[in-house]
Amino acid sequence: MDKDKKEFLKGTLDMLILKIVAFGPIHGYAISQRMKEISKDFFQVHQGSLYPALHRLEDRGWLEPEWKESETGREAKFYKLTRKGRKQLENEVESWARMSDAVKTILRAVE
Amino acid sequence: MRRLRRLFHKQTAEKQLDAELRYHVERQIADYVAAGMSLQEAGRRARMELGGIEHLKEESREARSMYFVEGLLQDLRFGVRMLWKNPGFTAVAVLTLALGIGANTAIFSLLDAILLRTLPVSHPESLVVLASYSRDGRVGDFGYSDYQVLRDGNRAFSGMLAASNQAQIEVGIDAETDVAIRKIVSCDYFSVLGVQPILGRMFGDEDENVPVAVISFGYWKRSFAGSASVVGKQIDLDGSAFTIVGVASPDFFGETVGDAPDIWATMSLMPASRRSLPGYTWLNLMGRLKPGLRAQQASQDLSVLEAQIGNSDSRGGFIQRIAVESGDRGGSGLRDSFSAPLNILMAVVAVVLLIACANLASLQLARATTRQREIATRLALGAGHGRIVRQLVTESVLLSLMGGMVGFVFSIWTERFLLGLVAGVGRAITLDLHPDVHVLGFTGLISVATGVVFGLAPALQAARQSHGVGLNPNLSFQAGRRRLLNLKDGLVVMQVALSVVLVVAGGLLIRTMQNLRTQDIGFHAANVLSVQVSSDRGHEPPTVSNLVQLLQRLEAIPGVQVGSFSFSPTLSGAGSGVEGLKFEGHPQTAESQRAQANWVGPDYFQTAGIPIIEGREFSTADNANTQKSAILNLTMARHYFGDRSAVGKRFEFNKVQYTIIGVAKDAKYVDLRKSNVPFVYFAAMQNNSEIHSLELRTTSAPLALAGAVKDAIREVDPQLRIREVTTLEKRMDQKLAKESLVADLAGFFSGLTLLLVFVGIYGTLAYMVARRTNEIGIRMALGARKSDVLQLVVGQGLALALAGLAVGIVGALGLTRFLTSLLYGVKPSDAITLAAASVTLIGVTLLASYVPARRAMKVDPMVALRYE
User: pTM (2 decimals)?
Assistant: First the structure.
């Protein structure tokens, strides 16, 4: 995969993760399940990319880890959106919207 | 903070990562099983979907920013363990690196102290050095009246100081007499430099002609036990009483690098009658630029005053031009004479280090081959390529840092030795060589750079080659063999090439030294004692009148053959030029009226051993009552009279007619590298000239007579002060000290590189023999003779050496021209030196091939084949 595309997908993946976590604390497996559902319709997210991405987002201070009991009664690592993370999500959503508007305009003009 | 905390709780972080991934897999399996899959199938699917767990872990770790440091610590731990496990390799590597880095550090700290460090004064950057130029080139210093003109006339400086060179004097403290180093300075010396006293005061404007002195911190501790009562104390400097007014701060050594005076005395130490003698330039000038001005502007400002200086000089403008040079590092003859040799030595030791790097790189390559399995295992366990390369480079850097530390210790030892060599150049030299931030930084930097240089290529190779080799033991040696070996061969070729350049350079410098030593200097330096004298009060040279009697007394000492005296001591480096020599029938241009000159006593030529080719030399009969006579050297006689005899001819100098009474052989008086300099000798006794030096030809070791000579001088004339008692041979050595320092060091480093090359070639061939033992066994089983095997090994070595030689000779031809300024009597492209270097290297190669070749010849085909 060429580098630009990889970076682009990485950014998209980060945004999706932030969006999913934004609904409330959630652990890695649950995120992967949500992801599976979404990606069925749009694009493939390799499960392998999920954990490095989570650690990256945590390292940047957008996600905050918390170990607590999961729905099966076992302890699991939950991720929670930080204030910084929420801000980041807003920014990304905004710029995504702006970009998709721009693309739409162009496509319409071409029609 | 959080990241840091995680760094220290790495273990917890690892466990958590484990737990997180385990949780994922288990949940996935549970879900699949719930959906009706078999447990086995569910496990397989779950793991497959996630990808390689170890790989995933590694990627997750890498996502963290502190991961780099975490990894580095891990690499370091691992590196230390690896090096600890191979003590032999580690010792050889550290020693090699220590030699290379130590040599670099030693030369660099010398270079730093002499060329780079700024003066320990306030705002050194706004200081400039004034340099004077005569028609013949750089003079450097100024007369006292020049100083006055420049100090009072300039508009560019906020202050200007004058300082003499340092010299020895006799100091009387209470009843004791001792010698110390003094410097005569203008009263604004300390204020211009901005140096503060730690005790008492410095000179003030009113002190110019007041007999006061400031002493150095070291001298204060040494001779006055650091007593506070030293301020106001009277001491005797060469017969006159001076009052100590202050002690300079501890780190201040003066304005000239290499000097370390004990006493700074005001101008009153130099009698007013001598201060401004025409053409007597004895002061170094420095100025402090007014804020915002540049050296360039100061230069323009001073150009107005150049004419004034020229006119005030009775010799018709001795100083023609003044240059303004940056003075933040002070003035230093040391810097002028050592900057070229030091830069060249720096290049030499850099090449030595490069060769050491090449050695280490081949060692690492050989090791990488044996470590292929370890590396392959780590790759299989999920380590990335970058990770492996980093690990190997970390090991190399670790090695080179260890080498750097040992090398630093080496350099501290060798510095004392180096300083001794530099000091041999003829005067006391004191350099601040204690390792400072510069030197430590330099060592650290080259250590790390060295590690990366010799570690990176082998590491990249190893990581690439090991990939896909797998854990198959039979494959491990085969894969990628070609590439590994090519790099290894390349390293040997590079080593040989670099060492050829060094050996050629070393050879040229050694030949220069030989040429300078064995050339015909025109006189016999052996068995001549040279005594420098001056009258009481230190600065007044005696005149001829009282010396004739002294000579008679000296010649009566058993062992003294003949003696004489002269104005400029032979080989002292001091020379005098005369202008305005008028020969009939010759153009009256400045050029043709100039010559070097000396004023000498009776029997001077016999004493110095300069043959008289025609006519006769001066005798006691050539005194004030007879017609004025002169002796020309051959070059000068030829210049004016061609093939005709010069004896009996006359010329005019300073409105006086001189008759030429003899022609002497050319003698290299002042500069051993300059020949065919016109030289005229005048009779000291006819001109009542000043005398600085007595010379005595002896029948035995001259210095053994020094005591008797000193006693005789004191007996005849107690007013005479004896300055320096030495021999002409010693002067000769001092004159050649720089050349011999450079030649010795270049020779030493050439030897060192040859040793490194030897080790390099030996290692490569020994490795080749070990690796090809099977092949050699098969060849022998098939009927190859021992000589064929010998040829195989030695041939390989020679092939590499010849390739290196070819590259090296081209390199040497290109690079040795930078040596031109240091060479004498030998061209940079000297064929003999090139040939000798080539032969030496081929010799080293053959020697290095010997042991591996013998081992190869001893291969028993049966054993070798069974081994397979």
Answer: 0.71
Using an 8 Å Cβ cutoff, are B185 and B162 in contact? yes
pLDDT tens string B3-36 = 555 555 556 777 888 888 888 888 888 888 888 8
What mean pLDDT is predicted for residues B69-90? Answer: 80
Reported ipTM exceeds the 0.90 cut: no
Question: Tokens representing B139?
Answer: 């003079």
User: Is residue B48 within 8 angstroms of chain A, CB to CB?
Assistant: no
* Distances B647 to B622, B710, B809 between C-alpha atoms, Å: 15, 38, 53
Burial of B331-356, coded b for 16+ CB within 10 Å and e otherwise, reads bbbbbeebebbbebbbbbbbbbbbbb
Please choose, from the candidates B217, B242, B247, the residue with its C-alpha nearest in 3D space to the C-alpha of residue B231: B247
Let me know: does B845 contact B760? Beta carbons within 8 Å: no
The β-bridge relationship of strands B321-326 and B240-248 is: unpaired
Contact between B502 and B749 under an 8 Å Cβ cutoff? The reply is: yes
The pLDDT of residue B674 is above 50: yes
Helices and strands counted in chain B (H then E): 27, 24
Whole-angstrom distance, CA of residue B297 vs CA of residue B303: 10
Q: Could you give the CA distance from residue B3 to residue B807 in angstroms, rounded to a whole number?
A: 52
Closest chain A residue to B3, measured at CA: A59
Distance CA B147, CA B285 (A): 7
Dist CA B590 CA B184 (whole Å): 34
Kindly give, in sequence order, each residue whose CB lies less than 8 Å from that of residue B685, ignoring residues fewer than 6 positions away: B544, B548, B601, B602, B618, B620, B622, B623, B624
Question: Which residues are B530's β-sheet partners?
Answer: B695, B726
**Closest by Cβ to B60, choosing from A27, A51, A76:** A51
Q: Cβ contacts (< 8 Å) between B13 and chain A: which residues?
A: none
Closest CA to A9 of A28, A34, A35: A35
Residue B791: exposure state from Cβ atoms within 10 A (0-12, 13-18, ≥19): middle
Which chain A residues are within 8 Å of B51, Cβ to Cβ? 46-48
Distance CA(B333)–CA(A52), nearest Å, equals 64
**pLDDT confidence band for B134 (50 / 70 / 90):** confident
Neighbours of B426 (CB within 10 A): 15
pLDDT at residue B672, as a whole number: 81
Percentage of residues of chain B with pLDDT beyond 70:
88
> Given its phi and psi angles, is residue B752 left (phi above 0), alpha (psi -120 to 50 degrees) or beta?
alpha
Residue B696 token pair: 């005595």
In degrees and rounded to multiples of 5, residue B675 shows phi and psi of -115, 170
Partners of B263 in beta bridges: B182, B215
For A52, the closest chain B residue by CA position comes to: B60
Cα(B375)–Cα(B385) distance, integer angstroms? 10
Asked if residue B784 has pLDDT above 80, the reply is yes
Bridge partners of residue B664, in order along the sequence: B612, B633
- The alpha-helical segments, DSSP class H, found in B173-294 are 189-193, 217-224, 272-275
d(CA B125, CA B128): 8
Q: What's the pLDDT at A43?
A: 58
For residue B499, give the 3-state DSSP assignment: helix
To the nearest 10°, report the CA torsion of B589, B592, B593, B594. 120
Q: With 80 as the cut, is the pLDDT of residue B217 above it?
A: yes
CA distance B567 to B810: 50
Chain-centre distance of CA B168, in angstroms?
Answer: 26
| Minimal-distance CA residue of chain B relative to A56 | B63
Please list every residue in chain B whose beta carbon sits closer than 8 Å to the beta carbon of residue A29. Answer: 23-24, 27-28
pLDDT per position as a tens digit, B185-207? 999 999 999 999 999 999 998 99
- Mapping DSSP to helix (H, G, I), strand (E, B) and coil, where does residue B841 land? helix
